[in-house]
Amino acid sequence: ARVLAETAHIKDPEEVFAGGLLHDIGKLIHAMYLREEFAGVIANVMETELQMFESEEKMLGFDHAQTGSTLAEKWRLPRKTVNMIAYHHLSDMPDTLTKEIAAVHIGNTLCIALRMGSGGDKRVPIVNQKAWEILNLKLSDLEYIMQRSTKLFEESVSIMDFQ
């Protein structure tokens, strides 16, 4: 998300970086406090073509973006951060799509596509066209974004020695 923010000249790329780090915090809450139900959600994702958030909505009645944004509000995080968490799938399109939300949405999709960890989804989601357009990126920017993101990810992994 940070590389997208920098490439799209978003004012505060570090704010977008924080949103990118926190966007799936709701999954952690589900895994910790709804263990059996969340195991069912994951099994459903593996058995169907549903994305994680779709399976959560079907089986729990809410998704990790809702849980995460509620937690972020309780933590009194900035509204921009709450919105990046709440709308990162763009399934419920916000009234005003911001560049920050778009960067987290596309960053999430790229991380899944580049296999930078696993959020539980078995297929790569489709990037929302409006998100791409609001960032005013060209297809030629994508190669740089992917290479830079991969390099930063590999550096982070080596620093933490997770290999």
Automatic annotation (TrEMBL):
CDD domains according to UniProt: HDc (cd00077)
InterPro entries reported in the protein's UniProt record: HD/PDEase_dom, HDIG_dom, HDOD, RNase_Y/CdgJ
HDOD domain ranges (all copies): 1-91
NCBIfam families attached to this UniProt entry: HDIG (TIGR00277)
PANTHER family registered for this protein in UniProt: PTHR33525, RIBONUCLEASE Y
Protein name: HDOD domain-containing protein
